[in-house]
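Amino Acid Chain and Its Fold in Token Form
===========================================
What this section holds: a protein sequence and its matching fold, both as plain text.
Structure line: whole-number tokens from a learned vocabulary of local backbone shapes, matched to residues.
Purpose: to set a sequence beside its fold so the mapping can be learned.
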Amino acid sequence: MKADELVQCLHSRFSHYPIAVTNKVSFLNAYCDADFVTVSMGAIVEEFEVKVSRSDYLRDAKKTRHKIYSDHPDYRGTKPNRFWYVTAPDIINLADLPSYAGWMELQCVS
């Protein structure tokens, strides 16, 4: 499954949110380069990072931008409320996820 197909699935799933956008240029902060971002009616900001292969996921997990999810005082108040990895089935294992991340495994129907 291609990344743009997974992003389209996210658009469909979150179409009822006031803000649900493909995030080509970050509007959150300099550290966020997510593939998709939502803001709920309750002002909960969620960042979604789409991964199409295990190697893609492992490369992303090493990026320094993920340090915003640490408890370091420099990053308080500058990060989304939730962070999700989004994949097609069988890309990553639950045991691979960092403690700050959620995981959505999507099967999209065209």
Notes: The chain has a mean pLDDT of 82.
